[in-house]
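Lab notebook, bench 4. Still working through the backlog of constructs that have no structural model yet. Next entry is a single chain of 52 residues. Request: give me the structure tokens for it.
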Amino acid sequence: MARAPNYGQERKERDRQKAAKKAEKLAAKVAAKEREKPEDRTSVEAEAETAE
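Model written out:
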């Protein structure tokens, strides 16, 4: 005998998977942006510390 479909549960599972994938992509994007940043400080930060 076939099981009765549980559309609400299936929808929740699809939404959960979609949200997890979106969060993973966002995390990868943030990590890529961090790697892109130059390691040296900007001149504004350096001037602020020398003025103190």
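Notes after review: The longest helix spans residues 7-36. The chain is about 75% helix and 0% strand. Flag for follow-up if needed.
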